[in-house]
Amino acid sequence: MASGPASELIMFIVAVLVAGSVAGALAYVTNDIAHGINERGAMLADRLRTDFAIINDPNHIPVNTSTTPYTYTFYIKNVGKEIIPFTSDAVQVFIDGNLIPASQLSFEDTSGNPITSLQPYQVGVIKVQYSLTSGQTYTITVVLENGVKRSLVFTAP
Question: How far apart are the first and last CA of the chain?
Answer without folding.
Answer: 99
